[in-house]
Structures are given as structure tokens and as C-alpha cells.
Amino acid sequence: MKLFLYGHSFHYEMENLCRLFFHRQKIEVFEDCREFDGPDAALTLVEREGETLHLLVKTAVGAYRGEGRDTVSVETPPQEVERRLAVLLFRQLTEACGICPRWGILTGVRPVKFFRSLVEKHGEDEAVRIFREDYLVTEEKLELSRVTMRNEGALLARSQPDSCSLYVSIPFCPTRCAYCSFVSSTVEKTVKLIPDYVELLCRELEKTAEVVRDCGLRVESVYFGGGTPTAISAEQLALLLDTVNTQFDLSHSREFTVEAGRPDTVTREKLEVLQNSGVTRISINPQTLSDQVLRRIGRRHTTQQTLDAFHLARACGMNNINMDLIAGLPGDTVEGFHATLDGVLALSPESVTVHTLSLKRSDQLFQDGAGEPEGETAAQMLDYAQHRLTEEGYLPYYLYRQSRMVGNLENIGWCLPGCESPYNVYIMDETHTILACGAGAATKVKRPGVDELERIFNFKFPYEYINRFQEVLERKNRVKQCYEQFQGTVCPFS
Predict the structure, then answer these.
(1) Are strands 321-327 and 351-356 parallel, antiparallel or unpaired?
(2) What own/partner pairs with CB < 8 Å and gap ≥ 24 does 333-340 have?
């Protein structure tokens, strides 16, 4: 699709809106163009005349031709001009394509955070009106935002100005899933790197603990993610967990999660290491209980291995288990997704996270051009998940979105009361500082009382992380510098 812009700088939002309707097409953007040509094209124009701004959107999609206009004062804030232009474009593309994305013109990652900010500024009734009328969000997604906001409120209230969380990246997996765009490497290709990586990661954890002490911070949650942390050996896992336990004061921590996401990496020995190291929560992620779909997305485990891993974890004393599912996988059907969810619920996990497939340019599915269910099919899967999980007593407690999601839908964390993952809420809400260690990890330093973050990135790939490790340690000093800047020349909480 071609997108033509004239008289404004709203490139990012206009492009994202077009991607909702043409998610498998490249969006070609042409700036400073008053004219446009099809077959699939849109012109978005803002032009000043005296004290008035004229807004114009024209679209040509197949046989459809659309045109919409609006006017605002030159004193109108840029974000409101952008919103009005987005509404014009959205309404035409909805009519042209015959689909109506349920989140309206919202394209951001954190709709619940945005809804909360509106509630705090205008009150809940006005926030509801703004979501419904100004952003064209459906009643279903509006209510989901409101319920999720309320459920996560208690966790957010626990975070204090001196709170932080720790994230540890283990970017290794048994195989690479066809839908994956994360920084992760297969164990087969990187096995020689893992011993050095683990040794250096322990050193980075030691340095990070020193920063925590110097800044007077309190660790509220610990989260081992990846990749697949249980792809490394039990001995390597034990070394990392022991480093965290000995270097950090975890007396305030409400969570210690380790993702054991691939069932084919779960062994009794590794589970015993997790249990003996104080891990309070794990994830065993089937994504689907269809062996046919598993093969299609490049996961080598079977449904039976998922069931065996879950029962083994229970036998080893794990009493807080999350399971991830994906709606919209290639080859899956609404009936197949129903069977998967029902099979997972029969296990009674403490939480179920329902993702919607997101196709990124770097993942294999996108590059292969593999067909995925239509947006409406994925929406039916999520509708069923919401119905069944609510029926079984699960609550939605965090929600986020990604670009290029099938149907422009969302990912939702559901849990039984009291089984929330604080880390998931804190990272999505950007509540407090997240100190991140390992390859591909990004530390986010939160200024207390202000909605501002400074990001400090580690090197992306394990070999870079190993070869330039001294720079990794030096970058950790930036965290302390940030806190010193918050209140003069000393860390505010030390």
C-alpha cells in the first residue's frame, strides 16, 4: 500500500493505521505529496488557511474511493489534529476493507495504561466516553480495559519510589519457532557460547546488585526470561539462581519467576533446582495442544510432552504455573483453539496467558508468506478464551499489544485471584525501574513520580555480549548516575 503525506508530521501513526488493514503488505510512504495514485493508496493532508487547519483524507482501495474532511483551529494541539486525521483515515479504510478493528484507532502497546491516565485526568465516565467516541474502541475492548485496570491496581499500589525489578535474559532455545522475532539462538548453534555466557552473566548480576545497594533500591520481583531459561543445564541454572539469591536482598520480593517455556527442556533435575532456589512461579508454554500445528510452527515437542512436563512440575512442588497460548497460529481453527484451551483448563494452572499471533518481518512465518487465520477467526478465539476463563474464575490482570498482530487484537494475562505476576504488570505499566541483565536485555530507569524512562541497552547477541562484556559493566554505572541526577549528587534512597 502507498501512503501519501502532506503538511503534517504524523507519519508513524498514519502508517500504523494503514498496517491494521494491510498487515502483510509493505507500506510505502511518500512525504510532501498532494496527489496520490492507487490501486491501494491513501492521502492524508493538513493545510492552513488563516486561523483554520483543513484536514483531508482520500483513499483508493480496489474499486472503493473515499474522501473525508475536517477543520480545526490552528491553536488545536498537534495530538488532537493527529487524532482527527486518524479518525478520517480509519473510517474510510474500515468501509473499504470491510473490517472494523476492535481497538479503533488505538495502535499503542499499552491501552490500559492510557485508559488509566484518562481516568486520573478526567474521571472514569469521561475516560469511557473518550475511548468510545474519540478513539472508536468497541464496548467489548473498553470494558476489558476497565476490568484489567481495576485488577492490576492493587499490584501497582505496592510499588514504591525505591522499588525495582530484576530481569535476567537467557537467549537460548532448543529450536527457533517460526513465529519468533526475539533475540534468541538455538542451543545446537550456540552450545559453545553458553558456559562463557553464564559466567559473564553472573558477573553482570553481581555488578547490578552493587548498583541496587548503592542506590538504596528494593527488589520487588525477579523474572528469568528468554529464549528459554531451562534450555541450559541444571548446573548452569543453579549457578545463576544462586548468584541472584546471594547477591540481592530479596526480602521484599513478591515473585521469582523462571520461564520453562519449552516442555522439551523440563526435567526433574531442573525443576528441583528451581524449587530449591526459591523460585515461586514457572511457565510451561504449549502455545497449542495440536501436534499438527506444533509441527507447522517449528516446535519439536508434542502435546504429550506438555502434559508430562506439567504433571512433573506439580509432583516437584510447583504450585504457581502459567501456560501460554497463541490465538491465530497457521493451521489452527476456532474449534482447534477451543480444544487447546479446554485441555489447558483441565490441568488447572494458576494463570493462562493468551497471546495473539504477531507477524514481524524477522520471523520465519512472515518471510515464508505462510497463511494465518483471518482477524475475525483470531477474534473468535479470544472471545472464547474470555468466556471460558471468566467462567473458570480467572481474572484479566495485564494486557498489552504488539505491532502487526492478527486482527489488531491483544495479549492478555489471566490468573486465579492472588496468582498474578507482579513483574508482568510492572513492565507493562512502566511502574518502576527494571534492571535487565544478559544479551538483548534493556534496563529501563524510571524517574520517581514522573512518567519518564531512560533506556540502557545491552548488546543484542550472545557473541557480542561476550566479546564486549566490559562495556556491559560500564553501562550499568549509568543507572547510578541516573539516580544521582534525580536528587542532586547522592542516590535518593541510599
Answers:
(1) parallel
(2) 333/373, 333/377, 334/377, 334/380, 334/381, 334/384, 336/288, 336/290, 336/293, 337/288, 337/381, 337/384, 337/385, 338/381, 338/384, 339/289, 339/290, 340/286, 340/288, 340/289, 340/290
Q: Are 202 and 241 in contact (CB under 8 A)?
A: no
Neighbours of 77 (CB within 10 A): 9
pLDDT for residue 184: 55
Joined together, the cell numbers standing for residue 133 give 467516541
Q: What's the CA gap between 269 and 150, in Å, rounded? A: 39
Residues forming a β-bridge with 168: 224, 437
CB 5 within 8 A of CB 30: yes
For residue 396, cis peptide bond before it (omega within 30 degrees of 0): no
- Cα(110)–Cα(115) distance, integer angstroms: 9
The position carrying cell 548452569 is 236
Rg (CA), the chain: 24
Angle between helices 234-247 and 268-276 (to 10 degrees): 10
Task: Give the integer Cα–Cα distance in Å for 370 and 382.
Answer: 21
Query: DSSP secondary structure string, 287-331?
Result: B-S-HHHHHHTT----HHHHHHHHHHHHHTT---EEEEEEET-TT
Asked if residue 56 lies in contact with residue 43, where contact means CB atoms within 8 angstroms, the answer is yes
Burial 165-188 (b: 16+ CB within 10 A, else e): bbbbbbbbbbbbbbbbbbbbbebe
Please tell me whether the overall predicted TM-score, pTM, comes out greater than 0.70 for this model. yes
The CA distance from 385 to 339, in Å, is 11
Inter-residue contact 68 to 96 (CB < 8 Å): no
Q: How far apart are the first and last CA of the chain?
A: 54
Q: Determine the 3-state secondary structure of 121 from DSSP.
A: helix
Residues 6+ apart with CB under 8 A from 449: 161
Which three-class secondary structure state does DSSP give residue 402?
coil
Instruction: Report the C-alpha gap between 112 and 141 in whole angstroms.
Output: 10
| CA–CA separation, 487 and 279 (whole Å) | 35
Classify 433 as helix, strand or coil.
strand
| Contact assessment for residue 140 and residue 102, using Cβ atoms and an 8 Å cutoff | yes
Q: Residue 465, exposed/middle/buried by CB under 10 A (0-12, 13-18, 19+)? A: buried
Nearest to 312 by CA among 242, 265, 256, 255: 265
Low-confidence residues of the chain: pLDDT under 70: 176-189, 360-373, 488-494
Domains of the chain: 2-97 (3.30.160.100), 111-154 (no CATH), 155-484 (3.20.20)
